[in-house]
Amino acid sequence: MSLENLLLFAGALLILFVTPGPGIAAMIARTLDAGPWHAAVYGVGILTGDIFWFTLAVTGLAAIADQLGAFWMAAKIVGVAYLSWMAFRAFWSAWTGARPKPVFRSGSKTSWAATYIAGVAMPLSNPKPIAFYLTLVPAFVPLEAINLPTYLLMVAMMAALAVPTAGAYIGGAHKARIWMTRPSVRRGADILTGCVMTAIAIVLLVAR
């Protein structure tokens, strides 16, 4: 694997991670809803899903993906259900002016696990990373030249680029969270968040 190939891979990853999409929107909403640490756990879940697709491409199993329709549908249902729940919470907050009680106690092991699983489900059901890892990556990276050390290096590159980009989005959302304590601002933000989450859930549901 040449340095040029690795740089191309890094550049493509940076564009993928920086460009706003369903994953970033959900992560920002998670920051506003439960705080930066829950958003970080959600981001780790997204990265896990990305690594799954990258591994699938590297190991030459992309052709098998089309045969696993039931698995992808299950992942899609998890992602859509989570986004729908977040949309409901946002609309409920805008309507009542009070935050509804969470399904899981904040900070509990169940809450962290649910957040992580929802994060994993996002890229598994999102066409953006699927298209990137299974079609675009093989186009400019010679997959046959990837051995175990190179694979580990590329995964480390994914983590190194994902952490600061996700951190920037989470940090910005967390700062805005303080400003959004004003009732009028909070209500408008809740309505906007609910609309965005609903739209993303619909896109994931109908996407093939």
Report on the architecture of this protein:
82% of the residues lie in helices and 0% in strands. With 208 residues, it is mainly alpha-helical. Helix 2 (22-34) packs antiparallel against helix 9 (183-206), helix 3 (36-58) runs antiparallel to helix 8 and helix 5 (69-96) packs across helix 6 (109-125).
Give descriptors for this structure.
208 residues, mainly alpha, elongated
How many β strands by DSSP? 0
What fraction, in percent, of the residue positions are helical? Answer: over 70%
Biggest sheet architecture: none
Structure class: mainly alpha
Order of helices and strands: HHHHHHHHH
Short description:
Helices cover 82% and strands 0% of the residues. With 208 residues, the chain is mostly helical.
How is this fold's topology laid out?
Blueprint (H helix, E strand, L loop, with lengths): L2 H16 L3 H13 L1 H23 L3 H4 L3 H28 L12 H17 L1 H14 L7 H32 L3 H24 L2
